[in-house]
């Protein structure tokens, strides 16, 4: 039987950071990953590489407020505070591993972006793991946890050769959410969730959540997820995002969002796009006719709005009048003309407070001479719900007590994101709690 001190399930940013942290503490670590080595896997490889962190321009108080506010006050204060306060340290640690950064991000004051995005980040982390002689077994799928008394003692796994067991003194679940599992999506989110375009890894099928439930773990917030407002081309031409992920629309707040009926349905300016794109993607895909919408704008803002899509039919779609644009979008020309006319006439400063829905910021008249549109839909990035954990990344049971020797971090765990999302905040959550999980598991093993 294969044995180790700490068994880690999943090879994304959480799995790698946990492995590195546990190894630093002297633990013998083994990573298992069900995906083949030579294909993109784990959401890390599909991410845009944006890393939100504390800086002089973005103090911890502001970061914390954004996280609590965007969750509607539901984010766990202690878990959130730890992530926020450790974000810059985590960023510096990644830099020491060789991660390069560029100033290109939605908000350079609040976040950095990995040069080469998530694909480069995943490669650097896995190289760091290999350089430290930490073994990784690919095409090795965990099927269940081994329970000895009340303590986790390893996992049962399946490979091409058959089934076997791996004995360990602690297990860290780092296998991501369940967004690529249609049955779990239907059960917890509803059948509409399967109409969303998967933006990340097809291997994130909720295995870790299922295994933890079998040993008594508590789950929460399972009906919520990170959507992502994306260019429709990603849905029509799936190969465009298959290898490196699907980027979300940026800076669309200076335009308006309309549905196939030509009507607005959200306050596009409630916040900047990095704090609405996850929420709006869900709304478009789950509540609007056909699961599509259109960003409408004119030549004055053409260089501001960024579709972050380079594939076929990139657009924007152009016309010399609103009615002509509506015809190209197969929207009733009178309906879209009425929407745009009412929007323009209601602007006071940069707000439209007499409309329903309001536009509370970033309002700009749409008056040509060229009228433009991007067709958009909703993506499915990762699930917000999952295992309940504490500040040591210990998995909690239904009585909120730690399950001995079981840890989890990243998108498999819940407690920080709910309802909405601040762009670039998943990677720091994963890096911070991945290290905490590794350190906690190694400390437990030493006992």
Describe what you observe in this structure.
The strands form five sheets. Strands 1, 2, 6, 7, 8, 9, 20 and 21 form an eight-stranded mixed sheet that branches. Strands 10, 13, 14, 15, 16 and 17 form a six-stranded mixed sheet that branches. Strands 3-5-4 form a three-stranded antiparallel sheet. Strand 8 (about 150-160) and strand 9 (about 160-175) form a beta hairpin. Helix content is about 30%, strand content about 25%. It has about 450 residues and is of the alpha+beta class. Helix 1 (about 15-25) packs parallel to helix 4 (about 115-130). It has two domains: about 1-225 and about 385-445, FAD/NAD(P)-binding domain (3-Layer(bba) Sandwich); about 230-380, Succinate dehydrogenase/fumarate reductase flavoprotein, catalytic domain (Flavocytochrome C3, Chain A, domain 1), CATH 3.90.700.10. The protein is built from twelve helices and 21 strands.
Biggest sheet character: 8 strands, mixed
Low-pLDDT stretches: none
Fourth-level CATH superfamily of the largest domain:
FAD/NAD(P)-binding domain
Structural class: alpha+beta
CA-based gyration radius: 23 Å
Number of domains: 2
Second CATH tier, the architecture of the largest domain: 3-Layer(bba) Sandwich
The helix content, as a percent range, equals 25-40%
